[in-house]
């Protein structure tokens, strides 16, 4: 999915969640991934990364992490922090 200057593996725009499934080539491009993740986070996205091997062999655990991130309370990045009741 195109997202700004990048292509992401999976994205839920409503939840501002990006899921990346990385192969072995990502071990050699850590700096690129760091810059890319920084750009995505600056746009308000959370980024989850999983190794191909985990997706193939530990699918239930991967799904649980994704689900937990989708259902966890995350404040909208455009809203000011809550100050409580006065």
Helix content: 25-40%
> Major sheet: size, sense and barrel closure?
3 strands, mixed
Strand content: 15-25%
Uncertain residue ranges: none
Looking at the structure, what is the overall shape?
flat
Class by SSE composition: alpha+beta
Taken in chain order, the helices and strands follow as: EEEEHEHH
Radius of gyration, whole Å:
15 Å
- Tell me the span between the first and last alpha carbons: 43 Å
Strand order of the largest sheet: 3-4-5
**What is the multimeric organization of the chains shown?**
single chain
Overall residue-averaged pLDDT value? 85
Supply the number of structural domains.
Answer: 1
List the keywords.
three-stranded mixed beta sheet; 3 helices; alpha+beta; 86 residues; flat; two-stranded antiparallel ribbon; 5 strands
Task: Set down the secondary structure blueprint.
Blueprint: E1 2-3, E2 6-7, E3 10-12, E4 17-22, H1 30-42, E5 46-51, H2 52-57, H3 59-71
Parallel strand pairs: 4-5
Antiparallel strand pairs: 1-2, 3-4
Overall description:
This protein is of the alpha+beta class and 86 residues long. The chain has one domain (2-71). It contains three helices and five strands. The chain has helices at residues 30-42, 52-57, 59-71; strands at residues 2-3, 6-7, 10-12, 17-22, 46-51. Strands 3-4-5 form a three-stranded mixed beta sheet, with helices on both faces. The longest helix is centred in the middle third of the chain and has 13 residues, at 30-42. The N and C termini lie far apart (43 Å).
